[in-house]
Amino acid sequence: MTTFETYLETRNGTVLDDDLVVVLRNIAEATREISDNLRTSSLDGLTGATEITNVQGEAQKPLDILSNEIMLEACRKSPSVSFAVSEELDSEVAIHSDGKYAVIFDPLDGSSNLDVNVTVGTIFSVIRASTSGEILKNGRGQLIAGYAAYGPQTTLVLTIGKGVQIFTLSADGIYLMTSADAKIVPEAKEFAINAARRSSWDDAVASYIEDAIDTGHNMRWVGSMVADTHRIFNRGGVFLYPADRNKPASGGRLRLLYEANPIGLLVEAAGGAAIIGTSTILDIEPTSLHQRVPVIFGSKNEVDKISAAYRERVLDA
Ligand code: P6P
Predict the structure, then answer these.
(1) Complex-level ipTM
(2) For residues 4 and 31, what is the distance between their CA atoms, to the nearest angstrom?
(3) Residue range 157-211, pLDDT digits in tens
(4) Rounded to whole angstroms, how far apart are CA atoms 76 and 71?
(5) What count of other Cβ atoms lies within 10 Å of the Cβ of residue 81?
């Protein structure tokens, strides 16, 4: 099996520059360290919540803080990193004044699942940015995007510009390639949505879900986007976190820069689709670091049905 180090040496046939190889190696090392800390968190007093509320208005978990620090350390160890943007921090953090890449991440997504031992993940994205003014660029400017899923296995899923590769962490702490070119099947009969929020769905989503149920689709909702995403990579399906029709200005729950964009790039690189409605996630021009957007992604044929439903409503309006 190909090791992650061999993958870095060959760059998977892309032109990834040496500086980005260093960044990616340090991010992968950070995910290994986060994985190690998760495995014994109940033994190390790293469960529960702190008294600290983050910029999202959420109570930080000890592992949120620890994972954030581990990712920041990965950035500091990478001389070419100019800034770090984290879900846990109000604004970008200056790392190296002569850096040319920004690392954007959600250090521990789904952390509300930690105490119940459900899969959580780290989501990351790397863009070219020498100044803070260059950070807000659309998702098609991402040079690297990926996530680590901390579940029964620890898996690293990433794209460096040529398809999607999946690595599994071995017992001795080495990422081994388990898929050289992961694809999302275009058809699937499974959707992921929080059905408790049905009253907030717009008509396009409501009609898609109603049709899906009528045609025998199954539902899965983990409450951890990385876990739902990894299932879609494994067997297809569609994930929906639409905007609240009663609070359209809220944009939805998920964040553009460090959740929707990296997942969107991975999904498109694997032959899937990722939209907010009638437009694609990767073409949204960001206006703020913690901007929230509606998120619908997965099997292309399913996402196309939803996009068509949105277009119909725009035409009917
Ligand atoms: P809800 C986790 O907090 C998260 O950001 C995603 O990982 C997950 O898909 C979603 O929120 C769950 O949201 O409203 O079902 O709790």
Answers:
(1) 0.98
(2) 13
(3) 999 999 999 999 999 999 999 999 999 999 999 999 999 999 999 999 999 999 9
(4) 9
(5) 27
- How many A from CA of 309 to the centre of ligand 1? 24
Residues contacting residue 65 through CB under 8 Å, at least 6 positions apart:
50, 52, 88
Q: Angle 203-214/300-316 helices, nearest 10 degrees?
A: 130
| Residue nearest ligand 1's atom 13 by CA | 223
Q: Which residues line ligand 1 (CB under 6 A)?
A: 109-110, 112, 194, 223-225, 253-254
Name the residue at shortest CA distance from atom 10 of ligand 1: 223
Full-model pTM: 0.96
Query: Given the structure tokens 């032109």, which residue do they identify?
Result: 15
User: Distance from CA of residue 120 to its chain's centroid?
Assistant: 11
Q: Look at residue 255 and give its three-state secondary structure.
A: strand
Token code pair at residue 268: 């498109």
The answer to whether the CB of 189 falls within 8 A of the CB of 216 is: yes
